Amino acid sequence: IRILAYESSCDETSTAVVKNGREVESLIVATQIKSHQRFGGVVPEVASRHHIEVISQITKEALDEAKVGWKDIDAIAVTYGPGLVGALLIGVSAAKAASMATGIPLIGVDHIMGHIMAAQLKDEIEYPALALQVSGGHTEIVLLKDPIHFEIIGDIRDDAAGEAYDKIGRVMGVKYPAGKTVDNWAHKGKDTFHFPRAMMEDNDYDFSFSGLKSAFINTCHHADQIHKKLNKYDLAASFQASVIDVLAHKTIRAIKQYRPKTFIMGGGVAANHGLRERMSKEIARLPKSIQPKVILPDIKLCGDNAAMIGAAAYNLYNAGKFSDLTLNADPSLELPYADSMLK
Ligand code: ATP
Ligand code: MG
Ligand code: FE
């Protein structure tokens, strides 16, 4: 089964050809980061315009790079939510047009299901699985009963992890998106500020990072007022230590309770070196009898890309979950997968 996939939910326009949900035959990512950087974040109208400029061209590129034609494609997959509505609509319209013109079946995919399934491109997921989904707009612990039935057991109450990285990065003068640079700086510093670890000892699996963000910003403002210069590496290390402590603590507790066969990380923040090392280390320390297999997706497949959408679409294909031409963008689409949207 060969799937052509589209992703355009935010500031990356991407197409890919994925074979059997596991093998990336081609992947094109047209990033718009430079256009948004001067505004310090994604400008929705600018995003839509960029998507529409490149989408036809990168459809052709994905097919060419995979050395296939339309006749070799079994399904056309597209992210239909969550994300920016104008951005999503470009991908959805392109996929629907291609499906209508070729008669190839259409599959609408949840963007977050896609992030989680990036792991499937690395190794076989055994179920039940548990995912730590950390991205620009989401921070969740998700149980996967099988490849298409998900349940969120922990969620973010305010700023998602990636959003928090971007906001504190901005205070330190780091260009959007700041996560990668803050991660690099963190490795050169020490946790000297001891920022709060919100909700760490609470009995649920929810997260909150806005208190941490405020503590960080207050520390910087206070230092400014008394003309004291703070060490940026220690600031980054302290922020990152707080984020990772909370994420790791709650995820390990969830693994002990739910005993998944596989542990997965997904989303842009899953590229974080500190978080990857910490999770691998803590899982290796669990008793052998409850140790899940760990799948950390390739760094380049953590951020938004169409290959992960192709992987998730393969699972929907096998379950017969196709969409029709009434498929519409749903900016606030939520896991578990909305079956009502599917035929
Ligand atoms: P969502 O997927 O929740 O809808 P999104 O698509 O905007 O949101 P992604 O593209 O998955 O989010 O991830 C982007 C986020 O990941 C940004 O906030 C970015 O700063 C963050 N990020 C990228 N690399 C790292 C890293 N190494 N450490 C921490 N954060 C990172
Ligand atoms: Mg992005
Ligand atoms: Fe994303």
UniProtKB/TrEMBL annotation:
Location relative to the cell: Cytoplasm
Gene3D superfamilies: 3.30.420.40
MF terms (GO), sorted A to Z: iron ion binding; tRNA N(6)-L-threonylcarbamoyladenine synthase activity
GO biological process: tRNA threonylcarbamoyladenosine modification
InterPro entries: ATPase_NBD (IPR043129), Gcp-like_dom (IPR000905), KAE1/TsaD (IPR017861), TsaD (IPR022450)
UniProt EC number: 2.3.1.234
Cofactor (UniProt): Fe(2+)
UniProt superkingdom: Bacteria
UniProt cofactor note: Binds 1 Fe(2+) ion per subunit.
Protein function: Required for the formation of a threonylcarbamoyl group on adenosine at position 37 (t(6)A37) in tRNAs that read codons beginning with adenine. Is involved in the transfer of the threonylcarbamoyl moiety of threonylcarbamoyl-AMP (TC-AMP) to the N6 group of A37, together with TsaE and TsaB. TsaD likely plays a direct catalytic role in this reaction.
NCBIfam families, sorted: gcp_kae1, T6A_TsaD_YgjD
Family recorded in the similarity comment: Belongs to the KAE1 / TsaD family.
Protein name: tRNA N6-adenosine threonylcarbamoyltransferase
